[in-house]
Amino acid sequence: MSREEIYERLNEVFRDVFDDEAISVNDETTAADVEGWDSHMHISLIDAVEEEFDIRFDMKTVVKMKNVGEMVDVIEQEA
Amino acid sequence: MQALEYPFDSQYIIKKKKSLKRELLSRDVKYVEKKIAVLGGSTTHDIIAVLELFLLNAGIRPSFYESEYAKYWEDVMFDNPELTEFAPDLIYIHTSNRNLYHLPQLSETAEEIDRNLSDEFARFHSLWEKIEQTYHCPVIQNNFEFPGYRLLGNLEASDVHGSVNYINRLNAMFAEYADTHKDFFLQDIQYLSACYGLDRWADAHYWHMYKYALAVDAIPTLSYNLSNIMKSIFGKNKKAFALDLDNTLWGGIIGDDGVENIEIGPETPMGQVFAEFQTYIKKHKDLGVILNVCSKNEQENALAGLNHPDSILKPDDFILIKANWDPKSKNLVETAGQLDLLPESFVFVDDNPAEREIIRSQVPGVMVPEIGSVEDYIRVLDHAGYFEVTALSADDAKRNEMYKQNVKRMELAQSVGDYGEYLRSLEMKGTIEGFIPMYLERIAQLTNKSNQFNLTTHRYTRAEIEEIADSNDYIDLYGKLEDKFGDNGVVSVVIGRKDNEILHMDLWIMSCRVLKRDMEFAMMDALVKKANEAGIKTIRGYYYPTAKNKMVEDFYGRMGFHKTAEDAEQNTTWEFEVTDSYRVQNHYIKVNEK
User: Fold this and answer.
1) Ordered structural domains, chain B, with CATH
2) A21 at interface of B, judged by CB pairs closer than 8 A
3) Does B22 touch chain A (CB under 8 A)?
4) Angle at which helices B377-384 and B269-283 cross, to 10°
């Protein structure tokens, strides 16, 4: 799966989770850039991303991810 | 909303919870408002968020108090102005085996472990007692899931040093407390987590990452189950089944295959699975769930199938059997009408997806589960929890009998031309008096179940009913009605609050099964008499409209009250002057005659 394809699907997940059709994320996006992305919504987001790509982030991966780009790196490897 | 009906897609709910909430709130629904405090021993954020969706879907609009992280004990045991001001209608305590202090150590003696177990229980016991003294509201407390590992292997279950053994004993103590305390309800997480799969339920990832005691994907299962207990406490349970026949209660199509070829009974695997399902359905009669047939069939074929020697369910087990070629939506609405129930009190069970879709689109509010294949029927209906039981009363088991008597009364009414003559022929006897201990449970239950003949829709817990019974500040009456067809039990409850010479009618309810029997007049007569004796000059009645109680919007007018006020929301206030010249209005029921 290309990064473009991953982003296309990832954006849908973000839009579903944050109930906002205008969201578009990129490599540099962090929690601070998305309204409502707090620690609670983060859990729902991770859950939804795992479902979308049929992967499981293990603990040591989740604690290290700093931005959306790093999340996509993991999806690229796993999915 | 279908996404929130069992069986649901948990991941979908977690992902879409924001938009689901938005959609729910955009519906035009008259909600019952409830204040719910959630006191957790672990993170409870999404438990609350998802619970809110299930409650909104059931017509309950909750507001929440959430304890600080893991402060479930401190929040109750110490002065808590915030919680006091919140004044919860219900408190849910969510703890897990992560909150246990004294799980046994191999180095401890049996006596030490026993002592620790009592201490552990005492900590929860003090919490519950404090809630009862301070907040006077129902409590839901979950029991404990099994531990994630077993140091002693299978010996954990039997040896006193085993955590499995310890949790089993503690859960038994919780169960005993629940069994002996009204308004205390146990949520059986031990069972829920077993159904879900303990390894997935107690996935340690979620504890170490987010301090959730269960996996995020398991939250909808927990919250849905919790919402069922709450729906039951707040009187939102379903009341009746409407059941299809062919390939639902037996295998095959009786009209095509003939009664001798339908699959029911011990001869074949398919016959067995249908018989097991029929047995499951039949047991609901003892809970007071009303059974009806809604089938596209000739009536005689339907009866032939139910009279099959191996059929567990017999024609007599059903109140109404509608087998014809009309649309099922029409039959279901008619069945509801004849039983004085609302269509939304029904669970419609049909193997045919097209019929299910028709009911869903034509009769909104009816529960129409995706029941799967026949071997899934029991599990789906059972886990859906439409009839979650929070209080069993002796009346429940008799309810089917009562509905059957009502059908006989209907037949009599049709055969007798004059309505007054019909009422006389029923030979009705009533008992109307102040609340007595024997009926407190039934009275509380009735205040939570009555929706249509209910002027204020004020719900009472058993504890509140007991307080009213003991207090001199109220005039309280229950009414019981029997006739030649049988005993209807307690069918009406009236609560008036004394305020010098005014009596405020906090509650006036009647069971719809005794509509048009003059019971309301008998209650009015008794109320006026009691009010007069208590020196009351004015009885003030209130009508608060809901989606369901339109039938009583002019009730006080019919009782001889005059309207004194009406606000923008059509809430009306009525007054009745109490005088010695009051003329009794009931002429058909003999009240309090032995």
Assistant:
1) 2-233 (3.40.50.1110), 240-384 (3.40.50.1000), 422-591 (3.40.630.30)
2) no
3) yes
4) 20
DSSP reduced 3-state for B547: coil
pLDDT for position B421: 86
Q: Does B211 touch chain A (CB under 8 A)?
A: no
Taking alpha carbons only, the member of B29, B32, B51 closest to residue B89 is: B32
By CB atoms closer than 10 A (0-12, 13-18, 19+), residue A42 is: middle
Contact B15 A19 (CB under 8 A): no
Residues of A in contact with B205 (CB under 8 A): 58-59
Q: What is the pLDDT of residue B372?
A: 94
Whole-Å CA distances, B298 to B256, B324, B326, B354: 11, 6, 11, 20
How far is B463 from B83, CA to CA, in rounded Å? Answer: 20
A66 contact B CB<8A: no
> Which pLDDT does position B594 carry in this prediction?
66
- Across the interface, of B11, B19, B46, the residue whose CB is closest to A43 is B46
DSSP three-state, residue B323: strand
DSSP strand pairing (B562-566 vs B572-577): antiparallel
Chain A to chain B Cβ contacts (< 8 Å): 43
What are the structural domains, with CATH classification, of chain A? 3-78 (1.10.1200.10)
Please give the angle made by the CA atoms of B372, B375 and B378, to the nearest 5 degrees.
80
**What local confidence, expressed as pLDDT, does residue B236 receive?**
87
**C-alpha to C-alpha distance for B265 and B274, rounded to whole angstroms:** 7
pTM of the predicted model as reported, rounded to 2 decimal places = 0.81
Q: What single-letter DSSP state applies at residue A33?
A: G
Output the 3-class SS for B108-170. CCHHHHHHHHHHHHHHHHHHHHHHHHHHCCCEEEECCCCCCCCCCHHHHHCCCCCHHHHHHHH
Mean pLDDT, contiguous 10-residue spans, chain B (594 residues): 94 96 92 95 97 96 96 94 96 97 96 97 96 94 97 97 98 96 95 97 95 97 98 91 97 94 94 97 94 96 96 96 95 92 95 95 94 96 95 75 82 81 90 94 90 93 93 96 88 96 97 89 96 96 92 95 94 96 94 84
In this predicted complex, what is the ipTM?
Answer: 0.91
Residues 6+ positions from B393 with CB-CB distance below 8 Å: B441, B442, B445
b/e map of B27-42 (b: 16 or more CB within 10 Å)? eeeebbebebbbbbbb
pLDDT at res. B162:
97
What does the CA dihedral B23, B451, B289, B372 come to, rounded to 10 degrees?
A: -10
B17 in contact with chain A, both atoms CB, cutoff 8 A: yes
Tell me how far apart the alpha carbons of residues B112 and B214 are, in angstroms, rounded to a whole number: 30
Q: Which of A16, A36, A40 sits opposite B45 (nearest CB)?
A: A40
Interface of B with A in 39-68 (CB under 8 A): 45-46, 49
Q: Which residues make beta-bridge pairs with B352?
A: none
Q: Which residues pair with B36 in a beta bridge?
A: B64, B90
Asked if A48 lies within 8 A of B11 by C-beta distance, the reply is: yes
